[in-house]
Hints:
The protein has 371 residues and is of the alpha/beta class. The chain is built from 17 helices and eight strands. The longest helix is centred in the middle third of the chain and has 15 residues, at 135-149. The protein is globular.
Amino acid sequence: MRELIELTNLPEQEVNTGVESSLGVTLDSLKSLKDQWLTNFDWEAEQESINKFSQYTTTLEGLDIHFVHEPSDDPEAIPLVLLHGWPSSFLEFLAVTEPLRTSGNQTHPSHPFHVVIPSLPGFAFSSAPPANWTLSDTARVFNTLMVDVLGYKTYAVHGTDWGSIVAWDLYSNFNQSVRALHLSFVPKIPFNREELAERNITLAPEEELPMDKFLEWQQTGTGYSHLLETKPNTISLALQDNPIGQLAWMGEKYLDYSDPRRGTGPSLITDNEILRTISLIYLSGSATSAGYIYQQNIGTFNQEYTKADNDAPLLFSGFPYNNGAWPDALLAMLGNHVNTTYHDFGGHFAALDNPPAIIADIKKIATYWEN
């Protein structure tokens, strides 16, 4: 991998002057990340850090499913499954695992969780699914993991990106076992301002910037998804043995979808975190299989807001630089919406961009929890 990075020839300068990040990853950003990969990045240290977490694989419906399992010492802890999306991995949630599984302290007591972080099929160390596999299939397998393999008869779910679709499917179709749902991204396409006005729904002040980000994404940010939906093999095979190519293709999402203040304050989205994620994707050989999630689930993100057959609480966390705004009226159309909390820092990868906020918001589940 290192040899391939060293041998990669990047242009001396942008082909067109004045290229901005709205046109994709900039040459300067990619060169900087490449240099850091070669000089400052320590994969051995990253492996040691990752391996501090208890990880397992189990075979379900013919798939090897990889997952982190960090149970709390408290027998009254709430089982919780955390679900990532693309181009992410289980690494997205490692920083919040220990705070979630502990009871806080005397000054700030909180309810603990038994934390489970599965890798979606095709991602990292979970094997690639068959051709017609959908996110509903993933939800079914993850419910089996929680109930039959780990023995948690009831549990809570948090989801973001594609993981939010799996989370809502679990909430909707496994209402006896899923007794709380927390989202930082909603598995439905937002309505724009005109569509909201037609429904007499107004945006809160905190929702204006996320709406702007969504409209910007609609105009200039959907090219990657169309390619993965229609020609996933072409881009995947081109990048399979190209670490710098994968860095440009997937690392760009961390640069573009994060709070512009990334790497400062609460944010853990440093250049090193981006390099760690892409290193895992490259070294696990999962870039191609992970990308197929788009082709296998075309049309799953839609504007069909239907209410789940579940009376368990639904909670939502909003972040200013996420790609979407979902007012409470829309959340109430999906389930038993009980709480929304907005934050003034963070973006799409919220558990990395603002870990304290996600930890605090997920812990609100305990207020509403009933087995």
